[in-house]
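DATA SHEET
Item: assembly model
Revision: 1
Owner: S.N.
Input lines:
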Amino acid sequence: MTLLGSIEAGGTKFVCAVSDNALNIIERVSIPTTVPEETMEAVVDFFGKYDVDSFGIGSFGPIDVNPASETYGYITSTPKPGWNQFDFVGYLKKAFGKPIYWTTDVNAAAYGEYKLGAARDIPNSLYLTIGTGVGGGAVIDGDIFNGYSHPEMGHIKVQRHPEDTGEGSCPYHGDCLEGLASGSAIEKRFGKKGIDLPEDHEAWEFTAYYLAQALMNYSLVLSPERIILGGGVMKQAHLLPMIQAKLEELMAGYLALPPMAEYVQIPGLGDNAGITGCLLLAQKILN
Amino acid sequence: MTLLGSIEAGGTKFVCAVSDNALNIIERVSIPTTVPEETMEAVVDFFGKYDVDSFGIGSFGPIDVNPASETYGYITSTPKPGWNQFDFVGYLKKAFGKPIYWTTDVNAAAYGEYKLGAARDIPNSLYLTIGTGVGGGAVIDGDIFNGYSHPEMGHIKVQRHPEDTGEGSCPYHGDCLEGLASGSAIEKRFGKKGIDLPEDHEAWEFTAYYLAQALMNYSLVLSPERIILGGGVMKQAHLLPMIQAKLEELMAGYLALPPMAEYVQIPGLGDNAGITGCLLLAQKILN
């Protein structure tokens, strides 16, 4: 029986799963992200119980996805202690010697949503997570999109809301998208977590404005046919229609986009977009 | 002998050329863009003198580049009288019955620069023209990039310069990139053409700021390894180093980019990027 291994490697926890070839999950664990020696040992212990045929990894970044690079398969310049320049793919290859599909967490989620979620059968689609940070991945022509490296689209510049004079929270760029609209930006800028802010708080108008501009920019550059918005901040259900309305207004009919309720959606796979994407990528690398 | 046909279809003029398979140009003409009946008749007259084997077309847009679409090969929603929903590819197919590579003017220029210009052998690169309008095209993994449609990246939103309180000139979006940094925006906003503004005019600082933000956003979304800046506005040679310096500052070391003098360049093919790209695309569709 074919067994697929999936690792959704986040900055807080690693979610590992083993499934059969029909993607039925046999076992799934969550491992805290501490230092590589500890976390990776637990990962190897988990998968060591099975004869897994291939792995799909969706990792926090930045990572090296260029197969021609000497550091392909590494987590590169992360500030996370111990993980900087960690050879993730090399470690797993050494432990199991199996084929590995290696990409970012958001690219894996984008692939999951394209194959089995809210972008099913939409070969040009975009997945954005708005959580602690903001990150995005795209599927173009049915395959994960990378340029010279993988996108880092959470850090684009957007125009400031005229009434928003607060500082941005990104340590690199100040008021880039992540510095204005991520969960941690909302908490830092307004003194409360998003979940504790009333629906009519100005934070939501600002956040919707920034995210709508970001979707406008991504639409103009990548030309997706659907955009999926995931992550903790999107659990505030009133935010999606605000973003859709603002995007429609900002775009001003310039592109022939699908109706907003189709064009911008929440994940069809819920919080399982990443893990499902990783399993599908494990399957892809095997075939 | 193989003959290649090239049409760089702009809003003001069509540049048509015939070359041999080594891209030596045999004849080249410029035809004013009036209405399709007139312009296209002159195009057919020109190519009718040769037994052209294939065509590469780089057209003003928006155009339909989706081969599965019923209006593939059309110029779509242009306000230009007569050209709205014009079946460009169909017209040429009917006249000559030869293979046609159909893409945007900026995509063709991006391809030309990748094959023979300043992005030679750089398989992930971006070409931006800053002229009457602002438009961009990308080569990803050695091929022209399209999503569901072609990019329209000239209209992205960027943050306003704190000292720039002037209005933007884009009829759709006001102060999008094209509305702030195109040649026509500069003329409208500062009362003079860029060529007539002194080098220390604040217009250049604003323009460099907006273009640098745009390059930052494109870099984060598309991850090119090189960016080529063409078009009339870039003929002001003092602008390039201003953009490079501002981009470096804004990016704040977040991405591992090549040195700015390598990363951001002017076209290696000068004003011939488009026509060269079209000839190369004619060759590509033939092979």
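QC remark: The first strand of chain A starts at residue 3 and ends at 9.
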